[in-house]
Amino acid sequence: MTKNVIDGQDLKHLTEAGLVWLRTNQQVVNSYNVFPVPDGDTGTNMVLTMQSAYDEVSDSAERNVGKMAQAIAHGALMGARGNSGVILSQIWRGFARSLDSSDLLDVPMLVHALGTARDTAYKGVVRPVEGTILTVTKDIATAAETACHKDGDNQSDLISLLECVIEAADISVQHTPELLPVLKSAGVVDSGGKGLFYILEGMLRHVQGLPLEGVSTVQALGSMKMDEHIMSMVEEGQDYEIVLDFRPYDSLNLEDFYSSLETMGTSIQLGEGDGMYRLHIHVPADKRYEPIDYAISLGSVTKIAIENLSVQVDDKQKTSDSGKMSLAFVEPGQIASVAVVPGPGIARVFASLGVAALVDGGQTMNPSTQEILLAFENLPTEKIMIFPNNKNIILAAQTAASLTVKKVAVIPSRSVPQGLSAMLHWQPDGDFDSLKDEMTSALTDILSGEITIATRSIDLNGVPIKEGEVIGLLNGDLVVSSSDLQETCLNLLAYAKAENYELITLFYGLDISKQQAYQIADAVRFKYNNQEVEVQDGGQPHYHFIIGIE
Amino acid sequence: MEKIAIVTDSTADIPEEIAERYHVYTVPITINLDGESLEDGSGGDGNVNRLSREKFYNQQLPHLKTFPTTAAPSIGTFQKVYQRVFENGYQHIISIHLAKELSGTINSAILAAREFGDQVNVIDGRQVTLALGYQVLACAEILKKYKDHNDDVSSVVAIQTMIKKMENMRTRLRVVGILDTLEYLKRSGRVSWMQAALGSLLNLKLMIEVKNGHVDKLGQARTKRAGLDRLLEQIKGMGELEHLAVIHTGGGAEYEAPEILETIVSSLQIKPLSQMCIWMTPVLGAHVGPNLIGLTAVACDPID
After folding, report:
1. Which of A67, A330, B120, B176 has its C-alpha lying 20 to 30 A from A77's C-alpha?
2. How far apart are CA B169 and CA A192, in angstroms?
3. What is the mean pLDDT of the segment spanning A37-49?
4. What CATH number is associated with residue A334?
5. DSSP letters of A27-83?
6. Which among B202, B219, B221 has the least Cβ separation from residue A534?
7. Are residues A308 and A396 in the same domain?
């Protein structure tokens, strides 16, 4: 099968195929998580970015390939979420720019477009890091150039070039741990690079006529927790979630396995590691023992967890009451502040300090460029400061800032405490540039602590950490762990030398009760009797505590 | 030339011995503590109920059942003071007071002055504490110079010169402070933005600046140290200084104040002509609460 040119409609169908195949493998991409913390899920972010790209053109009858690419790039940019999503949108942007308004795309143009995509992607990042999606983009472009310059005509058609590019992407992804030590120590490959690989592979599968959906996939075992729901939506009648670990007697026939499970329930996921499998499934009440019996028939079951999802959903709705808050009113000409907030309590604190607009988002829920852009556009002033409050949202905020005609400064806060520290300097009538400098330098006036649960076992910086242990991060680095929440909090403060500071602020999250939070605060007060200790209901998910030390 | 006297009120925060040396008359302001009325500051008629600052901040204020309130001097109080000044052989008075937005004091002074025709000029200093006090002392310096040089200047010219001097000084001074508690300023009703400043965070140190009769919000900090650092930066940004003062309201701040003054002075390339560390007069302290650190500085050149 050979094909020498493609038009706008072909590109649209390829984009759709890339999206669908990426979505099929979304959880696999999510599972390549470096830190054992609930992190911004790369797979989800890339799918949402691709979805936005495709939605932009799904009804389009455009045949001009350049114009189609530009529309796709625009959609990707607007929907870009998380760092990988933003870089993906830059790849599309470079690709589209290279095509200009050409009617058709041929081999030399594709080679050139991949090169421009690489250049644009690198330019979109302040400090490019190798061993990431950027490296994969670079290796793809290089492979395409090399293939094109080879003698002979066996590379001259688009499909052969695509095959060659995918092979290069695969090798590049496998090589990422060699370039980025943190990947190697976590035993994973780069998730963004892997996502890009799936997009390209989806395009090839489309051309080859292979299925893009309903295909069984297996993800890294560590990504699937025994006690956490991967699916946020619960379908009608699927009341119970079963999670079980088993070791099959014989090698597992995935297709038979999936088709048997599909008769029992939905939301089926399978993780594999070391010959061990972990199964997630949602089932109706009367079928809740069937997956267990089935697994027992296949091998030895080591662990079973059953949870009633309908009860969980009710609880969640009860606790999501966010209370009242009022946002600062800004007048045209004044400087407005926008904060990305991971929980209602944190939103209230930012609002009380004078924030004019809030964007929901944080760990595992990175807002899109469009959501941030919308917050900018809805403010009545032209001068805006934004606090991303998470390292995975800074790039999206910068992209949104570049898309508006308004004057926007991204104050690159990597945590909630950093954002608060900077926000204290806000002056609605101040000088924009000096305020920006002042706020940026205020980011380091505070230490940021985070307390969460290890989502899998890992050996990090020589410290062995078991799945389920309570871990403490200081300024983004994992520094302490223990089996006890209070102990980890105290260890983190000791590591941070909190005794040399004045004020410790504890924002407790959704996962712990007010009583529990106050008990731990009392223990902190007892140890740090020269420091002020303040407790706030942060309401953030995943993180038991976000701690400011100043 | 005619003898001109300078009258001010206790909110100028001029230390007693300096006021005496420059022959500045100070009208006290009344403060009510749990039903007891006391006179603030120095000067006045040498009234019996004068308030010790240290005792007020560290012994009385923490134990009051109700928040202290203050009352502007009556027209009669001013009339008595003006009368006494004229009896002491002066032909003219320049009466300099805190900004009209912050107190009714100047209103009483203006009404009292009507009894004396052109003999009393009442001037709004647009400021408070030593930012007002330094203007008063600059006027006293002008009078002293005339006297030392035996200059025969008419009262009209002398007073115009003093008014110009004060206007000029107001372009060169700043008065800033960091509050330990928001409670007192909130209750004082002197600021419109206070409700908005009361945030969700419990530990929030508010920084304020008095500008042209208004108390503005300068910023906020989570810790006193961080707030002070920012205030110090503001003062350092003023360039070479003529005067510098740290003003506190006890409650522990009296121990920090001398160190803070030392820190600023040692960071300056050229030392200020004058520096002091004082307790704020209770009538102002009643509106900002204990443990406040305030900084007043007058630069050699206009700021901004």
Report:
1. A330
2. 62
3. 78
4. 3.40.50.510
5. HHHHH--SSSS----HHHHHHHHHHHHHHHHTT-----HHHHHHHHHHHHHHH-BHH
6. B202
7. no
A3 within some domain: no
pTM (two decimals): 0.70
| Per-residue pLDDT tens over the stretch A268-291 | 777 666 667 777 788 887 888 888
A353 to B219: CB separation less than 8 angstroms, yes or no? no
Report yes or no on A388 lying in a domain.
yes
Domain limit, last residue, from A445, A476, A491: A445
A136: in domain: yes
- d(CA B130, CA B174) in angstroms, rounded, equals 10
Range of the domain at A166: 8-215
pLDDT at A219: 59
- Give the end of a domain, one of A445, A470, A491: A445
> Is residue A530 located within the same domain as residue A453?
yes
| B304 chain-A contacts, CB cut-off 8 A | none
Instruction: Judge: B219–A421 Cβ closer than 8 Å, yes or no.
Output: no
CB B94 within 8 A of CB B7: yes
pLDDT band with cut points at 50, 70 and 90 for residue A215 = low
Same-domain check for residues A385 and A246: no
* Total count of residues recorded for chain B: 304
C-beta atoms of B226 and A445 within 8 A: yes
Domains of chain B: 4-29+72-170 (3.40.50.10170), 173-299 (3.30.1180.10)
Count the domains in chain A.
4
Is the CB of residue A327 less than 8 Å away from at least one CB of chain B? no
Structure tokens at A273: 């590691």
What integer best gives the mean pLDDT of chain B? 90
Pick from B198, B202, B222: CB nearest A550: B222
Determine contact, residues B13/B31, Cβ cutoff 8 Å: no
**Which member of B198, B203, B226 has the closest CB to residue A532?**
B203
Which of A329, A503, A528, A537 is the best residue to mutate to test the B interface, defined by the most B CB atoms within 10 Å of its own CB? A503
Determine contact: B226 vs chain A, CB below 8 A: yes
